[in-house]
Amino acid sequence: MSWSRSSWRTLPSPHIPAYPDPEALRTAEDALKTYPPLVFAGEVRQLKSELARVSEGNGIMLQAGDCAEAFADFNTFNIRDSFRIILQMAMILTFVGEKPVTRIGRVAGQFAKPRSNATERIGGEEEILTYRGDMINGLEPTARSRAPDPERMLRAYFQSAATLNLLRAFAGGGYADMHSAGKWLLDFVENSPIRKKYEQLARKINKNLNVMRAYRESSREPHRQRVDFYSSHEALFLPYEEALCRNDSLTGDPVAASAHFLWIGERTRDPSGPHIEFLRGVINPVGIKCGPDAGARSVERLLEKLNPGNEKGRVTIIIRAGADNAERVQSKLIRELTAAGREVVWCVDPMHGNTINAESGVKTRRLSDILRECRTFVDVCRTENVHPGGLHLEMTGKNVTECLDRAVREKDLARNYATCCDPRLNAAQALELAFEAAEYLAEL
Ligand code: PEP
Ligand code: CO
């Protein structure tokens, strides 16, 4: 079948809900087709070449952010705090793990959620559609709010544009300058139980920066003030992706201009499904989420479709097996795909296989399970002789109480449980994880 940006439409799409007013959806798509791209082909190629370097063992990819962005949470502070923690995590991985880090946010487009059920009944009330992310419908459990509304797609676009505008300014300006790294850490150290570790790291960073400063002064290299920061989301809602697909003005190649990196979820990675059909035609780097049931054969079929030329940096395999299944699932996929000669970035998502229900019924995750799955990943990669290249996380810069650890017990979950989808690591948990992961990597 030949590819076009709309060829996915010939395939059944159970994860794309029916709109009560299809004409209004088309009008919104037509508007979006004329709007500016959110990312540019040159940036997308740059990310792909960074990921190619990661696949060769020379770098780490850190992908982190909200499970789902929300219109109600859109403000400067949320964007800044999340960006800051990602920079800090990257800094820890760089200095402790001694590898360059590619930073990718789950941000500026992460507005559509796959659901296991199309409808639900809450508290014995009438059956209503499930929430599918702010790009599609509202979280409030009423029939009216849950009806898919095309205006939401445009609002998600504008929020993404404004978010990226701020992130580009932060990444390009002095805020991300490595010389401020000690300051970001010190800010945090004030009220952290792992204060000593940060102080040691801050000292080490300063020492290294002094060496680098001396080197730069002697070599007259330009002062490095900016970092690269990329956006990503699950390529779930294909009407949005299609409407933002553009052709590279230099080569004519199709680019998904909604984000630098797009991934395909555990529920939509059918090799003959519409999501693969769309992604196979764009040049962006793509991720494939692989749960405990992902067989190496079906992942190979996906790779044949998404990356027939076996281009380095094109595909990242994000394994999210859960701590108890991790060794079995990771070993099998890594062993079989490596034997088949497949070039991929191996990445762990230690979040999505470790979701449990607390006694109150609320969804949570244990930091200890998350750490255990990361540890297993590094060990399995070592045994199989591949590079543990990526870490995919759900986190926020806020002090939420959504995941369990020494400081957040079941009774504490209700204190600041703010996610509209999955439980995220808070700032302290994210940094603790970065330290642990960096130490595992440093042992390699
Ligand atoms: C997610 O990343 O939020 C998600 C739904 O993941 P998965 O497809 O792996 O379940
Ligand atoms: Co999630």
How would you summarize what this structure contains?
Helix 3 (76-97) links the parallel strand 1 and strand 2 (101-106). The protein is 41% helix and 14% strand. It is an alpha/beta fold and 444 residues long.
Task: Walk me through what this model shows.
- With 444 residues, the chain is of the alpha/beta class.
- It has one domain (7-168, 225-442): TIM Barrel, CATH 3.20.20.
- Helices cover 41% and strands 14% of the residues.
- The protein is built from 13 helices and 15 strands.
- The strands form four sheets. It has an eight-stranded parallel beta barrel, surrounded by seven helices. Strands 12-13-15 form a three-stranded mixed sheet.
- Helix 3 packs across helix 5 (151-172).
- The longest helix is centred in the middle third of the chain and has 25 residues, at 195-219.
- The protein starts with 21 loop residues before the first helix and ends with a helix.
- The mean pLDDT is 92.
- Bound molecules: phosphoenolpyruvate (PEP) and cobalt (II) ion.
